[in-house]
Amino acid sequence: MSETIFLLPHKIIGVAVIWNDQEQILIDRRRAGGAMGGLWEFPGGKIEPGETIEECIQREIYEELGIEIAVGEHLITIDHTYTELRVTLTVHHCRHLSGVPQAIECDEIRWVSLAELENFAFPKANVEIIAALKQGVGARG
After folding, report:
1. Which cofactor names does the annotation list (predicted)?
2. What are 58's strand-pairing partners?
3. 69: closest CA among 108, 18, 13, 123?
4. CA angle 13, 41, 118 (to 5 degrees)
5. Cα–Cα distances in Å, from 102 out to 56, 64, 73, 106, 141?
6. Which whole-number Å values give the CA distances from 64 to 7, 17, 119, in the listed order?
7. Sign of the dihedral through C-alpha 91, 96, 99, 100
8. Gap between the Cα atoms of 49 and 47, Å rounded
C-alpha cells in the first residue's frame, strides 16, 4: 500500500440513512464533549473485525438508538480526511422496522424530511451523503 503519504488513524464506518413510513430520515446530534460535538449526523459506527458492513450498521443502530432496522441498498462510499483522522463512510439506505428511537449515545434524535436536512449542521463528510440523497430521491429499497 504505497498511497499512504502520512499515517492517520483510519476508521471504516457503516452509516445508516434510516427512513420511516412518513418518508422521514433519522438523524442524531453528537454529544457536545466529543469529536465534532454538537453536529448532527446519520447514525452508524465503526466496523468490528469479521463483521460485514450490513451487520455493523444493524448492531450500531441497535446499540445507539435501540431500534431494529432493515439494511437496504448501498447509497455511497465516502473517503474523507479530517486533520486528525481518515474515515471511510459506507452508507446504506435502511428502513425502520421496530422500536422507538432513543438517544442512548447521542444528545438528541430527530425525524426530518430530506428537504429539512440542510437546516442542520453536519460534519463535512456528511454533506456528500445529503447531496447523494438529493440526487437519488426515490431510488431507495
Report:
1. Mg(2+)
2. none
3. 18
4. 135
5. 18, 8, 24, 9, 24
6. 29, 14, 23
7. positive
8. 7
Q: Kindly give, in sequence order, each residue whose CB lies less than 8 Å from that of residue 4, ignoring residues fewer than 6 positions away.
A: none
CA–CA distance, 17 with 35 (Å, rounded to integer): 21
Regarding beta strands 40-41 and 44-46, do their DSSP bridges make them parallel or antiparallel, or are they unpaired? Answer: unpaired
Please state the rounded mean pLDDT for residues 128-139: 82
Report how far apart, in Å, the C-alpha atoms of 82 and of each of 11, 79, 136 are: 11, 10, 26
- The answer regarding whether domain 10-135 maps to CATH 3.90.79.10 reads yes
pLDDT of the residue at 18: 98
**pLDDT value at 5 more than 60:** no
The predicted model scores a pTM of: 0.89
Q: Is 112 helix (H, G, I), strand (E, B) or coil?
A: strand
Specify whether the CB–CB gap between 55 and 70 falls below 8 A.
no
Per DSSP, what are the bridge partners of residue 14?
45, 90
Residues 6 or more apart from 125 whose CB is under 8 A from it? 78, 80, 82, 87, 89
Contacts of 84 (CB under 8 A, 6+ apart): 8, 9
